[in-house]
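Exercise 7 asks you to align residues with tokens for two separate proteins.
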Amino acid sequence: MVASWYRPFLKLCEEWPVDETKRGRDLGRVAQAFREGENTQVAEPEACDQMYQSLARLHTNYYKHKYPRPRDTSFSGLSLEEYKVILSTDTLEELKEMDKSMWKKLQEKFSSKGPEEDHKA
């Protein structure tokens, strides 16, 4: 039974184009779901089938062909290349670091003791 799920997922993963800008985020959920290969037990066959069908539609650009766009733009006006840069793993990591530094600044600003008191202690 599991082999009937494992092999189509494996074939889909092999066909899926690798996006080097998204290290660790390309089909990771699928690989994690089938850690034991063909010996993996599928607890929810309907959910597994639904996930496979969704990934297959994405892979074949089903919705891109079903609902063609008159122009390659978005509500923000950014291009596809700009979105790829923004959604890359490196950019997302940089944004996390920026958020951390912003959070630190806010903590320091609203902490009960001022920065000069830190040096006195």
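Second protein for Exercise 7:
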Amino acid sequence: MNGPLSRVLAATAVLLSALSVPAATGSAEARPAELTAACPTTGWVSQHFHSGHNGVDIANDVGTPIYAVGDGEVTISGYTGDYGQWIRVLHPDGRISEYGHMSRRDVSVGDHVVAGQQIALMGAEGTNVDGSHLHLRIWGDRSTSYGIDPEAYLAERGVVLPCTPGSGPRPKPPVYPAESGRVVSARSADGRLEVFVAGADGVHHAWQQEVNGNWSAWEPLGGPGNAELAIAPDADGRLEMFALSGSTFQHRWQLSPSGGWSNWETFGGGGRDTAAGVNADGRIEVYASGTAGLFHRYQLVPNGGWSQWEATGGGPADSRVEMEKSPDGRLEVFALGADTFQHAYQTAPSGGWSNWETFGGGGHDLTVDHNADGRLEVFASGPTGVFHKYQTNAASWSGWEGTGGPADAQLSSERTPDGRVEVFAMNGSTAMHTWQRAVNGAYGDWNAFGGGGTEVTAVTNADGRMEVFGTNHTGTFHKWQTGFSTWSEWAWLNSTAGPTQG
């Protein structure tokens, strides 16, 4: 990376605090946090775990609320024939809880849930279902084909079935920022993906016509040409789009969740790059870089008006910017310039910001993601390939480590359905990807992913399958998982070339 990554200074510790775990039913108050759980639902056990039944059935009326049994990340939220609607949650200890036959799902892939948070409503969907019930499975090891007894798992953590779910408000799970760039994508409130591509003639837009489904034709939106884009959800579920060019900054927003869009409105002056994230209280916060460093602007109330632009006390000039979120809801900003890499973080959820701190040397592009256990992972590209740096615990970082990969690449990252981080790198001649071989673990070798291009971004469908968008001088392509370990070929988004980038 222009050499500086090999000379990186040790990053100052990031002040993270661990998530608190709500008390479980029974005598869990005396148990360590990792051995607490929450009651999954109200009802009676209609079938226990045994050699012919991989889980426990808890029966009750259609529409009975279902709750996460522990903190974790949603890795599957979709539909399958046997289960109907189903959900998987990966927990920090590596265990997986699985919920089937629901009539409604309230969480999406990538959401972080807390123990006792409502995630679905009970139903009777799927094949061979005799009445409304929750089928709950607990997986202890992904390499096995059979789960462990959910009743024993819950009892060890203080919950004995049948049980009574906790009452009262639950902490709102973090909303992780979407990746910024000249191609961005996010899910509307109804689960359909939307994608925006910046071209010389302005911003272009396409959307899934049904959840996990086919795509609309491209729609030109106008706005600034050759812009850097960012997207974030308002507290009420409406997406908001930000477009920054060298001379102007504009934004537009959905008029209703999953609905149509406003016209463009002025948001500020020009700059180099932008990123957007959501505060713990639901207010969007926007960062932008320019010749004088980093500035930010934020909503004064959720879904409401905006502050004025404020200087942040420095940061690398004309830097590439990304945001991520710690498990306790604090935003963190990473800014990569040609000669230096710096970061800043909120000192409290929805609160003020730290000073800028040295994070490494300069480079070409960056991507930031989070492990299944909440630790942040940062990747940066330069002339000798891709490097990464990761939190070793809640208060310290590793040194920079080389991973190989293409030189001076555009980077993007997402998480697989079981919570492993996958990284995509594209330069003018090649596209490659690498992924964690185990949850929270080391990465494998880089593998070919396609030809060269100018921009890349990765996102997940509502059913957990990843979809990757890439651009070049001929148009915009996408490639998607046909299963959870197989990929389609690259193809036009909707049988047309779409917007191009030089």
